[in-house]
Amino acid sequence: MMQKLATRLCGLLSAALVIVSCGDDAPVGNQGPLGSAAVDAGGVAGSGGGGIVKLGPCVAPRGLPAAPLQWVASVNCQGHALGPQKAVHIIDIEFDPDTSRIYGCGAGGLFVFEHSGGTIELVGSTAAGMTKGSKYDRIEVLGGGMIALTSRKGTLSFYDVSKPPAVTQLSQLSIADASGMGRKDDLLYVLGHDGALSVVDISSLKSPKLVGKMSGLNAPWDMRVVGDRAYVADTILGLVVIDLAKPAEPKLLETIATLGGAQDLWVEGDLLYVAVGGEGIEIFSLKEPDTPKSLSSVSWDSAVVSVSASGSLVWGVNHESIVAMDASDPNNPVPIATMKTPKWALHVFAKGNIAYVADWTHANVYFLDRSVNAPSSEVSPGTLYFTSGAKEATLNVANRGVAPLQFSGLTVTDPRYSTELSTMEVAPGQSAQVKVKLGAGKEAIDSEPLTVA
Fold first, then answer.
1. Looking at CB atoms within 10 Å, which of 119, 205, 239, 323 has the fewest?
2. Is a pLDDT exceeding 80 seen at residue 253?
3. Omega of the bond prior to 57 within 30 degrees of 0, cis?
């Protein structure tokens, strides 16, 4: 038999932030945009120290200020794919500086959003008017309300979305297993998951033409073009540098191993950030653009699948959460905050202290107040399992913020269990261990989930 315990934890942070409430009259986290100062605990393993501390019942403090990271707006796109393909899964999100609009795509088609203050509104979609929404995988903003969309079904499509709700397809090309894109003047470089890089002349979006092709990649996902160089995130090869000195004749210049499978990347100044899955975010220097140099990395509990930056503020998503770190010193980046996302976060775009997130059926907006110094907790694992004969299990509580994290209490709702804490205070970047013990002579039984609060 097996007993399952959901790992929720209540603790008082030094910046007066409750992770999860433990009483009906205390604030409850992650209920909605700006709904509470409480946030759900996530999970990152780490190491802690010190002796065992036994605490009393968890009591949620009152009068707590807001957390530095806030979920401020959200829009649900489910239901807007009205044709034969009704599912909506948003897997890419981008911002258009010319129109100040946000574009999302995935299963269900293309979606156009406008964000103002505490609201984000869906203003246009290919899934309107009872039409089939189709499926797209990547967006490239071309300027002036023009965008390119790729699909792994083998298409490159161009749309005019300058006057929503009108969404007008201009043209389409066939490109096998199309993925990420990058633009240089009137040329668009299109990756294919088959290992190819196609070169498309987009001087006329109504009649684009394939003018070149390069092979030699393995499993490329996305790319960034900087001058005469392109940088490709390839989950097998790592970071790939491509020479664009002859724009229609790209050449593979260098391949650099990354700490994990490279899935996304972002260039900010002379720094390049790569989402490397379970190894988190890896930072490279581009001072030598032909041979990027790895400087550092930061990892979280779940695999980081997308990264974006604005100045020294770096954002990432890892399916379960949105994370933020300060890369003012790229050799020593500092995690600032993390927050669970309601759905399944797949892509992020940074604009100053704002992050737009493709969160499965939703497009979400987050805001980080960098003037607030606070801890940020992540709990690992997300669920404890007591199999037959097991007498104890351990949670790791990592502080991913910039101020000490303090605990005020621990509670297990089932009286057969007790808890012990390794330390009352967790410094930034460190972890504490919470032991959950089954009492002597007791047996774990298959029952409703228990809560560790």
1. 119
2. yes
3. no
Is pLDDT above 60 for 197? Answer: yes
- How many Å apart are CA 332 and CA 428, to the nearest integer? 13
Does 323 fall in a domain?
Answer: no
Percent of the chain with pLDDT over 70: 80
Residue 362 is assigned to a structural domain of this protein: no
In a shared domain, residues 56 and 136: no
Do 33 and 95 share a domain, yes or no? no
pLDDT band per the 50, 70, 90 thresholds, residue 56: low
Residue 408: band (very low, low, confident or very high) from pLDDT cuts 50, 70, 90:
confident
CATH code at 256? 2.130.10.10
d(CA 75, CA 252): 41
Residues 21 and 131 in one domain: no
Q: Which domain holds residue 424?
A: 1-68+372-453
Residue 3 CB coordination number (10 Å):
23
CA gap 299, 372 in Å, rounded: 22
Q: Which of 112-126, 214-228, 320-334, 401-415 has the lowest mean pLDDT?
A: 401-415
Residues 173 and 89 in one domain: yes
The whole-model pTM stands at 0.83
Tokens of 260: 């994990």
What CA–CA distance (Å, rounded) separates 134 from 128? 11
Does residue 87 surpass a pLDDT of 80? no
Best-predicted range by mean pLDDT (113-117, 404-408, 447-451): 113-117
Phi–psi pair at 37, nearest 5 degrees: -85, -5
Three-state SS annotation for 281-332: EEEEECCCCCCCEEEEEECCCCCECEEEEECCEEEEECEEEEEEEECCCCCC
The whole-angstrom distance between residue 206's C-alpha and the CA centroid of its chain comes to 34
Among 171-185, 325-339, 392-406, the range scoring the smallest mean pLDDT is 392-406
- From the centroid of its chain, how far is CA 251? 31
The pLDDT-based confidence of 31 (bands split at 50, 70, 90) is very low
Same domain membership, residue 163 and residue 137: yes
Q: Is the same domain home to 61 and 91? A: no
DSSP string over 208-234:
-EEEEEE---SSEEEEEEETTEEEEEE
For the chain, how many structural domains are there in total? 2
Distance CA 55, CA 62 (A): 19
Kindly tell me if the per-residue pLDDT of 443 is higher than 90: no
Last residue of a domain, one of 313, 338, 363: 338
Looking at residue 280, its pLDDT comes to 96
| Number of Cβ atoms within 10 Å of the Cβ of 46 | 18
- Smallest CA-to-CA distance from 45 within 387, 407, 399, 393 is with 399
